[in-house]
Amino acid sequence: MNSNRTLIVIYGFLILLAVATVIRFNRLKSNRVGNECVDNVIFTTNMLCAPEIVRSFEKVKDIYGKKNTLFFRYSENSCSSCINYYLAEILVLQEEIGKDNVWIFPSYPDDRGSRIQLSNELAKYNYQNIPADSLLIPTYGGEQKSYFVWMNNEGEIDMVFVPDENNLQYLYNFFLEVKKKKNWINQK
């Protein structure tokens, strides 16, 4: 009788271990770079994961958008060192894919000081200061988040990416996906 109970306990333990392994595998799978949503909404390339961004962006894409264009959106309340880092990385990417294929959309007050600051900081980019009420800047965990939008060669929003300051590899992977989308990698 004791051996039967022992076997039942062992089988129960193995079943729990198998279930835990499947759950862990699914979480890891959803966190990989690709077309899935991530539980914490920090990294996504699937526009369906960020519908509020897509809906908001639809208002301006006809004005600024063209095929195969990367857009970067942030506010003056965003982490300034993060924005400076992203802008430096965008500059490197811009050299590879062309300045015409990149637009920066900051959200700063419409005053003389902000205009001077933006013209100095963004002189190497195509940019337009767009108020927050005209183009969404989402808040996750009480913090405004910058994000990227990629418009594909059909002129449709194809990818939305919210960078994670704690994992810069996601940013590099996203930029690699952008280059793959237009085959800029193969042209070099």
Give a structural overview.
It is built from 6 helices and 7 strands; from the N terminus they run ααβαβαβββββαα. It has helices spanning 2-31, 51-64, 80-97, 112-121, 168-182, 184-187, and strands spanning 69-75, 102-107, 126-127, 139-140, 143-144, 147-151, 157-161. The chain has a 5-stranded mixed β-sheet, with helices on both faces.
Topology (SSEs and partners):
Elements (H helix, E strand, L loop, with lengths): L1 H30 L19 H14 L4 E7 L4 H18 L4 E6 L4 H10 L4 E2 L11 E2 L2 E2 L2 E5 L5 E5 L6 H15 L1 H4 L1
Parallel strand pairs: 1-2, 2-3
Antiparallel strand pairs: 1-6, 4-5, 6-7
Counting DSSP H or I runs of 4 or more residues, the number of helices is 6
Overall helicity: 40-55%
- How do the strands of the widest beta sheet line up side by side? 3-2-1-6-7
Spans of at least 5 consecutive residues whose pLDDT stays below 50 are 27-43
The tally of structural domains comes to: 2
pLDDT average, as an integer? 76
Name the CATH class of the largest domain: Alpha Beta
Return the structural class.
alpha/beta
Helix-strand sequence = HHEHEHEEEEEHH
Strand fraction equals 15-25%
Judging from the principal axes of the Cα atoms, what is the shape?
elongated
User: In whole angstroms, how far apart are the ends?
Assistant: 72 Å
Number of strands: 7
Q: Which tags fit this structure?
A:
Glutaredoxin, 6 helices, 2 domains, five-stranded mixed β-sheet, 7 strands, alpha/beta, elongated, 188 residues, 15% strand
Question: Brief overview, please?
Answer:
The chain has 188 residues and is of the alpha/beta class. It is built from six helices and seven strands; from the N terminus they run H-H-E-H-E-H-E-E-E-E-E-H-H.
